[in-house]
Design brief:
Helix content: 55-70%
Number of helices: 8
Shape: elongated
Order of helices and strands: EEEHHHHHHHH
CATH superfamily of the domain at 111-195: Winged helix-like DNA-binding domain superfamily/Winged helix DNA-binding domain
Distance between the termini: 69 Å
Strand content: 5-15%
CATH architecture of the domain at 111-195: Orthogonal Bundle
CATH topology of the domain at 111-195: Arc Repressor Mutant, subunit A
């Protein structure tokens, strides 16, 4: 398997020759009636989908059910896929929406995240490694407390590593709003994670 033009490509044999099959071509083949080709799309993106669900839901017992629900929605929505966008971005959008719907229904906010850029003022040095577990737990808690409009872009941009263009497609918001929300989210997280940095009020 190789990477080509932002899509995964698989080599298949036909008439003794190797042929490249992109995500979009697999979608077209699946829609033509060869439904078994959908399993190749699942194989390509199951890790991405699982990672997305985990970042929203944590160790929730719903992860397995949501995984199946996401791919069911992907399968039923294949005809609406726009090849102008990367298939991976489209899949993440579906996964994110499925997770958000479940969170709204259950009113839970479990959104673990391993690292966020610029949250702390300095990187951990070797002497501070023993504090890593505590720091990550504080980050998880801080992200959980963010309003949804800020929590979603933080997860997708920092944890999933998606581009601004992908966030525009997923959230439907212009890039200026996304950048503003990421900036404000960082400020909120810094306030939560570095309370000692606040200036002390002068004593009377």
């Amino acid at each position: 398997m190789v990477e080509f033009a932002g899509e995964q490509v698989v080599m298949i044999k036909r008439g003794g020759e190797d042929l490249e099959v992109t995500d979009y071509e697999l979608v077209r083949i699946c829609l033509s009636g060869k439904r078994d080709t959908f399993s190749e799309l699942v194989t390509r993106y199951k890790r991405l989908v699982y990672a997305t669900i985990y970042n929203f839901m944590g160790n929730s017992p719903d992860v397995s059910d949501l995984f199946q629900e996401v791919f069911l929605k992907v399968y039923k929505s294949l005809a609406s896929y726009n090849p102008h966008y990367q298939f991976s971005t489209w899949v993440v959008k579906i996964a994110a929406n499925v997770c958000l719907d479940r969170l709204r229904q259950t009113r839970t906010e479990q959104v673990p995240i391993d690292e966020i850029e610029e949250v702390a003022d300095n990187r951990l040095n070797p002497e501070d490694h023993y504090l890593a577990g505590e720091r990550l737990e504080r980050i998880r808690q801080a992200v959980q407390e963010l309003p949804e409009d800020y929590r979603v872009p933080v997860i997708l941009f920092h944890q999933q590593g998606l581009s601004y263009e992908a966030l525009v497609e997923i959230t439907g918001q212009p890039v200026t709003i996304i950048k503003n929300r990421l900036y404000r989210a960082r400020l909120m997280l810094k306030d939560k994670l570095n309370p000692d940095n606040e200036k002390e009020k002068p004593s009377c």
